[in-house]
UniProtKB/TrEMBL annotation:
This is Extracellular solute-binding protein. It comes from the Bacteria. Keywords: Cell membrane, Lipoprotein, Membrane, Palmitate, Signal. It comes from Paenibacillus rhizolycopersici. The keyword Protein biosynthesis does not apply.
Length: 540
């Protein structure tokens, strides 16, 4: 057997073994078809299933719940005291199947091909929009369950209509449950600058793009890190990040080249604002103020420059928080207000309603024999106290409940970052949650670290946040066309962006560029996205 044939055979046998193990594991844990004699009562049996109050069932029911976790995070979150108390109080026993993102892609394909699913899928990274839309027969429409068995979620949707908007699929039904995370900022990334360098050179925080140009020029020419070398890189990233174009009105939080302007979807790489932004970038590049390797380096190379061992060498960037990427030099960096653009206005990427909404946080599969039980179990997550405990950690472990009705986050163990601790102790970003906006004043965060620091930084840019192109939903037919359209069009846009930043010539090549995009199907792409946007906006 030659090497290629051997590799093929090995891959085939590996896939078959994995498929068998996965199907056996699910069936053995109560997923898929319920086994005879399991003792699980039918929820329609009124002597066992309770439509209101606790327990949810008088006799224990076991549900199989699958969720994906990043890398090697593991399943420590299952020891969250709130989750353990939930089992005791509801009589709903959970068998967790926790998979790693490292190999979930292959496992997911096998699961969807076999059609053998657990009772509940939890976390928006587990199954995507396209996974769900292309396999709708595996998932239960939840509208009637929400109406009959989920008063907490129903009240949340009444208070915050965006929850229903993001959860409604193109056929008008809800298949997955949403989340509204607590204490999230309105802004995404904001400008971050080396404040130590500014002070060293006697410079003010840049306010306009002209100021920014002058500051970056000083960073390049005046040795602000004081090591006697011309090693300063005023601006670097992995490619020209959309955030660099924020002063020109480009605020793309989803990196899909879309904006909403005057209530209409706009493909901004054909806009005059984009054109002017690239001209500005080309000016900086020509003067050596933008990293010459901007379009050729990967994330590892960028990180190495941001955390250069001998001295800080990066002057300006856009980040979530100042301490996000600079390692031991983090103390030198500070967030600053958005830079004013040519029109005198400031623009900040984010969401005026908060960076807190998502869908696909929980699905009930058609394999689930007890959907009413699953729905009532899910509804327990949609209270304020439940949500904060599933985002940070349990009361008494991570959160201190105070006598005045406030909640304070405790400090993490020595040597552990707050964010890592929260992921260890809770579902964190994944799973259903809803914290009422009125409740957030009761949450006490440390303003100098983690989520509290981000909220402090948020105050600089929140008033400048523009309405983003929303997280719309596409039909199965649209999902078939989108990959080809976006791959070809986005690749061409990225190629021309790199060319115009590094070599110039945008005025001369602009008309031919727009024509080629139209020839490649930009009109069809915009029709798909506009149709999806209109469906989203029509949900009441």
């Amino acid at each position: 057997m030659n090497k290629q044939a051997g590799k093929f055979a090995m891959k085939k046998w590996t896939a078959l073994i994995l498929a068998g193990a996965l199907v056996f594991g699910l069936a053995g844990c109560g997923g898929g078809k319920a086994s005879e004699g399991s003792g699980n009562p039918a929820p329609s049996d009124t002597s066992s299933f309770n439509k209101e109050g606790l327990p949810i069932v008088n006799e224990p029911v076991t549900l199989k719940v699958l969720t994906m976790r990043w890398g090697n995070m593991g399943d420590t979150f299952t020891q969250n005291q709130w989750l353990k108390d939930l089992e005791k109080n509801t009589n709903v026993k959970i068998e967790w199947q926790v998979v790693s993102s490292n190999d979930w892609g292959e496992q997911k394909s096998i699961m969807l091909a076999s059609g053998t699913l657990p009772d509940i899928i939890l976390g928006d990274q587990t199954f995507s929009d396209s996974d769900i839309v292309n396999n709708l027969s595996y998932f239960r429409p939840l509208d009637d369950y929400i109406d009959q068995y989920m008063p907490n979620l129903k009240a949340a949707m009444a208070e915050t209509p965006e929850l229903k908007k993001i959860s409604t699929f193109p056929d008008g039904k809800i298949y997955s449950l949403p989340t509204r995370l607590p204490s999230r900022p309105k802004t995404k990334n904001q400008p971050v600058i080396n404040k130590t360098w500014l002070d060293q050179l006697g410079l003010q925080v840049p306010d306009t793009i002209d100021d920014l140009h002058n500051v970056l020029k000083a960073f390049k020419e005046q040795d602000p890190n004081g090591n006697g070398k011309a090693d300063e890189i005023p601006y670097t990233e992995t490619g020209l990040a959309p955030d660099f174009l924020n002063p020109f009105g480009i605020t793309d939080i989803n990196a899909n080249n879309m904006l909403v302007k005057d209530g209409k979807p706009i493909y901004y790489p054909t806009s005059e604002e984009y054109k002017e932004g690239l001209k500005f970038a080309n000016k900086l590049y020509a003067e050596g103020l933008i990293d010459k390797e901007l379009f050729t380096q990967d994330g590892t190379m960028t990180s190495a420059k941001q955390q250069n061992a001998d001295a800080p060498i990066v002057g300006f960037t856009n980040q979530w928080t100042p301490d996000a990427v600079f390692g031991k030099w983090s103390d030198q960096y500070a967030a600053i207000p958005p830079i004013a653009g040519p029109d005198g206005n400031r623009y900040n990427p984010g969401n005026p309603n908060g960076m807190s909404f998502n869908r696909n946080e929980m699905l009930i599969t058609t394999s689930c024999k007890y959907p009413e039980v699953a729905a009532r179990w899910a509804d327990q997550f949609y209270t304020n106290e439940a949500s904060i405990q599933n985002f940070w950690g349990a009361i008494g472990t991570v959160i201190q409940k105070n006598g005045d009705g406030t909640y304070t986050l405790m400090d993490p163990p020595a040597g552990t970052s707050a964010d890592a601790w929260y992921w260890e102790q809770s579902l964190r970003d994944f799973g259903p949650k809803y914290v009422s906006p009125a409740f957030e004043k009761n949450i006490v965060l440390n303003p100098k670290a983690g989520d509290g620091l981000k909220l402090e930084i948020d105050k600089m840019g929140s008033e400048y946040v523009t309405t983003p192109f929303p997280n719309v939903m596409y039909t199965a037919e649209e999902f078939q066309e989108l990959p080809t359209l976006t791959t070809d069009i986005d690749t061409y846009v990225a190629t021309m962006r790199a060319q115009w930043v590094t070599k110039g010539g945008i005025d001369e090549g602009w008309d031919a560029y727009v024509k080629k995009l139209n020839d490649m199907g930009l009109e069809k792409l915009m029709k798909i996205r506009t149709d999806a946007y209109d469906r989203y906006m029509s949900v009441k």
